[in-house]
Design brief:
Shape: globular
Distance between the termini: 58 Å
Number of domains: 2
Largest sheet: none
Radius of gyration: 21 Å
Structural class: mainly alpha
Helix content: over 70%
């Protein structure tokens, strides 16, 4: 189990290196805030997987309250056969590696055609498709429902991030699901506003100014919503997680009886992806239909 995890993590780490190489070349070709941000994020991403490898190898200590990875795999999939678990680990590692390559390709293509949100949307769609394919494969192998396996794999991704950074599962879930996902949506909405600012600077008209105002209001709603959410969960991360779980259970019971797992998937997967893709499509439309004129 230990060697399987180590090989899998090292494989993912190696596949993440092209992203940093591409980001470095892009920054050299075009020194911009986006290019620098992509490079810094890619380096941080490499460091996270490097830390994960060091933890698996025992170089860095694990948190005492973190679940044993083998137990986590068994709980998440319902599969106890070691050979099958090892195969699933390699399958997930292959999925991560493919996503890393797709992200590197997206950064490369963005540097050529300067449409970052188009490639962000395509990469996100590919990542979700891969996650769905892996979920189907595991559900067939374990005789489990796709619905349950998909949720368990999402939890596994969060657990892997927590493991790499030395956080508890609860701490990382709050940081990732509430703050990081929320911030990404805010940035995607703000990008629409900045696109319209660029549009109005290029050519002023009544329609464009009106669209600028609408985009400002739209982005403000995201900012205000994010601030309210941050205030709502302004407490220790463990307590924020417990509060969120209770609210998800309550929502799951009241919303067509979808339950806790259904509420998670609706809000943090389907809802989040829908809003992000919506903002991506709006941005793409504005870039294509307005700025090009």
């Amino acid at each position: 189990m230990q060697s399987t995890l180590l090989f899998a993590v090292i494989g993912i780490l190696i596949s993440s290196l092209p992203l940093t190489i591409v980001a470095t070349k892009r920054m050299k070709a075009e020194l911009s805030l986006m290019a620098v941000s992509i490079l810094l994020l890619s380096i941080l991403y490499n460091i996270v997987w490097g830390m994960c490898a060091l933890r698996v190898n025992g170089v860095l200590p694990e948190r005492d309250d973190f679940l044993n990875v083998k137990v986590l795999m068994e709980v998440a999939t319902g599969i106890t056969d070691q050979t099958t678990i090892n195969f699933i680990i390699y399958l997930c590692a292959a999925g991560f590696s493919i996503i890393n390559v797709l992200v590197a390709l997206a950064v490369y293509k963005t540097g050529i055609d300067h449409h970052p949100w188009k490639w962000t949307g395509r990469t996100l769609a590919a990542a979700v498709l891969l996650l769905a394919i892996i979920s189907i494969a595991i559900s067939i192998m374990g005789g489990l429902s796709f619905y349950m396996v998909f949720f368990d794999l999402c939890c596994g991704i969060m657990a892997a991030g927590a493991y790499a950074l030395g956080l508890t599962y609860k701490e990382f879930c709050v940081i990732g699901n509430i703050y990081v996902q929320g911030l990404i949506l805010v940035l995607s909405a703000l990008s629409i506003f900045f696109t319209m600012v660029k549009n109005v600077r290029k050519k002023q008209s009544t329609l464009r100014i009106a669209m600028l105002i609408v985009s400002a209001v739209y982005a403000s709603l995201y900012v205000i919503g994010f601030v309210l959410i941050c205030r709502h969960y302004a407490m220790p991360l463990e307590e924020a997680f417990n509060l969120c779980v209770q609210e998800l259970k309550s929502f799951g019971q009241s919303f067509y009886g979808v339950g806790y797992i259904g509420a998670n998937i609706i809000i943090f997967v389907v809802g989040w992806i829908f809003l992000l893709i919506l903002n991506v499509l709006i941005n793409m439309f504005l870039n294509k239909q307005l700025i090009s004129k």
